[in-house]
Design goal:
There is one protein chain. The protein is mainly α. The chain is about 90% helix and about 0% strand.
Length: about 50
């Protein structure tokens, strides 16, 4: 593998990793938001004793 090919491959792998990391961060944010909403719902249910 030439240096040019290796550099291109490295960029492709890095780009793929960045995309995967962004997806993981999006999923983590959704999980956090879901947990907060569940807590709010729990508090409302307790307040109205449902």
């Amino acid at each position: 593998m030439t240096n040019v090919e290796l550099t291109r491959y490295t960029h492709v792998v890095a780009s793929s990793f960045e995309e995967q990391l962004a997806s993981i961060e999006d999923i983590t944010a959704l999980i956090d938001k879901t947990a907060r909403l569940a807590e709010e719902l729990s508090q409302l249910l307790q307040r109205f004793k449902l």
